[in-house]
From TrEMBL:
Top-level division of the source organism's lineage: Bacteria
SMODS and SLOG-associating 2TM effector domain segment(s): 1-176
Name of the molecule in the record: SLATT domain-containing protein
Coiled coil: 92-131
Ranges that cross the membrane: 37-55, 61-77, 176-198
Keywords for this protein: Coiled coil, Membrane, Transmembrane, Transmembrane helix
Length: 204
């Protein structure tokens, strides 16, 4: 394996490690911040129901409160894992930084054989696999994309991997949601427009 190939291998693995770190921090942020927003939303809706009598008998509002309460129970159930996500994110960030240093060492090296560096890479990846938490919080993948691409120092990764805006910086599930919204919009426009077009040509 030559230097160019090895540098790209380091960058590809560092991307996985760095993104994994941000995904753990995203889960941590969701677990720490979302319960407060849920509590505030529930309180605000409750105040509205008390202040305005016309809302007190609205079933939709009651259903919304129930949904918010269930979401709050889910978040509280996962609350015990908060510090685990934070610790894993910090450890993965350290591994990411070591991979970056390894990349810079390889880049500055005049050697063409990287036996010791390859061994170091394998050890760092083993630490990555041992540290990562498989279970992540809902929507942490979306939030992690923002945290990784817009809050992280990834210029050296981009130099090797050439990230594209739509291809790499958008979560795949979010892409499908955008496609679905576009499809529904087109169907809606077609349903409301085609009869008028048909009527227009019929009257010509």
């Amino acid at each position: 394996m030559n230097k160019k190939q090895f540098k790209k291998e380091i960058a590809e693995n560092a991307y996985n490690v760095g993104f994994g770190a941000k995904k753990h921090f995203a889960s941590y942020d969701i677990l720490t911040k979302l319960p407060n927003w849920i509590s505030f939303t529930g309180l605000a809706i409750g105040i509205i129901q008390v202040a305005y009598a016309e809302f007190s008998n609205q079933k939709e509002i009651s259903v919304l409160l129930i949904i918010i309460s269930i979401a709050g129970l889910y978040i509280n159930f996962s609350n015990k894992e908060i510090n685990t996500y934070k610790k894993a994110g910090e450890e993965l960030t350290q591994i990411y930084n070591k991979l970056r240093q390894l990349y810079l060492n390889v880049e500055a090296s005049e050697n063409e054989k990287f036996k010791d560096e390859k061994k170091e890479l394998d050890n760092l990846l083993e630490s990555y696999y041992n540290t990562s938490i498989t279970k992540q919080i809902f929507l942490s993948q979306w939030y992690a994309h923002f945290k990784f691409f817009y809050e992280f120092q990834i210029d050296w990764l981009d130099k090797e991997l050439h990230f594209k805006f739509w291809k790499d910086k958008f979560p795949n599930s979010l892409k499908w949601l955008v496609y679905f919204i576009i499809f529904i919009t087109i169907v809606f426009i077609a349903i409301n427009t085609l009869p008028n077009i048909y009527e227009y040509f019929r009257n010509l």
